[in-house]
TrEMBL record:
Gene3D superfamilies: Homeodomain-like (1.10.10.60). The lineage of its organism: Bacteria, Pseudomonadati, Bacteroidota, Flavobacteriia, Flavobacteriales. Residues 190-286 form the HTH araC/xylS-type domain. It comes from Flavobacterium calami. This is AraC family transcriptional regulator. It comes from the Bacteria. Keywords: DNA-binding, Transcription, Transcription regulation.
Length: 286
C-alpha cells in the first residue's frame, strides 16, 4: 500500500497505490480555486458537481486530464479494485513561474478560464497517458518509495510534465492534426531526453542525437518541442542550470568546479548563462 504526499512551493503531489474493497463516495466542497493534473494509472474516479451547469470529470484506467474549478462542490466516487494514481494539485502562481512572461501566450483556453473564473478541463473525456509521460510517472512512483525526499528532483519532474501538457493546450485539434507521434516516435523522443539527462556535463549536437535514434534533424527538433514544449537545447540548458543551482546550495564546490560539472569549460561563460537564466550571478547563492 502506498499513499504519499510531497509538498513543494505551490504544489502537492499525491501518489496512491492501494486496493479498495468497496466503492467510496466523498462529498467535496472548497471555496478556493482548484487546479489539478490527474493521472489514473489503474482504477477509475468520477466527480459529479452539485450544480448541473458545472463540469463533471471522469478519468478511467490508463487516462489523464487537467482541469480547473473556480470552486468545488460535488460528489467524488472511487470505484472498487486496484487504484494507482499520480495527482498534481498546484497553484496558479506555480504555473506562472514555469512560463514567466509567456504564461498567457502559452496557456490558451486555460488562461482564458482563469481570467473569467470559469471551469475548464483539457479533454471532454480522459486522454490516454502517452508513453513519454508513463516513463516520468514510473520514476516518480519509484522515487516516492525512497526514505529521503529530493525536492529539486520532484520539482524538475513536475515541470517536465507541465511542459509536455501545455504544449498541447492551445488549439488541441490543430496541434494533433499537425503533429502526430507514433508509439515508436514517442520512444525515440524519450530516448533523446534520457540522453540529454546523461550528458549534462558533455557537449552533444542535434546531429549526434538524430543519428542516435535514426531520425532527421528537422523532425527531431519538431517532435521534441511537441513533446516537451521547448527546443532541445533550451531543455538542456534548463537541466544544466537547475543542476548547477542545486550544487551551489548543497555542495561544497567552487563555481569553476560546478561550471565544469554542468558542461561549461569556461567559468565566465557559465556565470553569464546562469545570470541570464535566473537573473542573478551564481556567487549570490554561495
Amino acid at each position: 500500500m502506498l499513499n504519499k504526499r510531497v509538498y513543494l512551493d505551490g504544489v502537492v503531489i499525491i501518489i496512491n497505490d492501494f486496493n479498495i474493497n468497496t466503492p467510496l463516495i466523498f462529498d467535496i466542497k472548497q471555496d478556493s480555486p482548484f487546479i489539478k493534473l490527474h493521472f489514473e494509472i489503474e482504477g477509475k474516479i468520477d466527480f459529479q458537481p452539485g450544480n448541473s451547469n458545472d463540469i463533471s470529470i471522469t478519468i478511467e484506467d490508463g487516462q489523464y486530464n487537467f482541469f480547473y474549478l473556480p470552486v468545488v462542490d460535488g460528489v467524488l466516487n472511487w470505484q472498487s479494485g486496484n487504484r494507482k494514481s499520480v495527482e498534481i494539485e498546484c497553484s496558479e502562481n506555480f504555473i506562472r513561474k514555469i512560463f514567466k512572461n509567456d504564461f498567457y501566450k502559452i496557456s490558451g483556453l486555460f488562461g482564458n478560464a482563469l481570467r473569467e473564473k470559469t471551469a475548464f478541463k483539457m479533454w471532454e473525456k480522459g486522454e490516454k497517458i502517452p508513453k513519454v509521460l508513463n516513463n516520468v510517472l514510473d520514476k516518480i512512483i519509484k522515487n516516492s518509495q525512497e526514505k529521503e525526499t529530493d525536492l529539486l528532483y520532484w520539482e524538475s519532474e513536475i515541470i517536465k510534465i507541465f511542459l509536455y501538457m501545455f504544449s498541447k493546450i492551445n488549439d488541441r485539434k490543430e496541434i494533433n492534426s499537425l503533429v502526430y507521434l507514433s508509439g515508436t516516435e514517442q520512444e525515440q523522443i524519450a530516448k533523446v531526453e534520457k540522453t540529454l539527462q546523461n550528458n549534462i556535463q558533455n557537449s552533444i549536437t542535434v546531429e549526434e542525437l538524430a543519428l542516435k535514434i535514426g531520425m532527421n534533424r528537422y523532425k527531431l527538433n519538431r517532435n521534441f518541442k511537441h513533446v516537451y514544449g521547448e527546443p532541445i537545447f533550451h531543455y538542456l540548458t534548463r537541466l544544466r542550470m537547475e543542476k548547477a543551482k542545486a550544487m551551489l546550495t548543497q555542495k561544497n564546490m567552487n563555481i569553476s568546479e560546478i561550471a565544469y560539472e554542468v558542461g561549461y569549460k569556461n567559468p565566465q561563460h557559465f556565470t553569464v548563462a546562469f545570470k541570464k537564466y535566473f537573473g542573478y550571478v551564481p556567487s549570490k547563492l554561495k
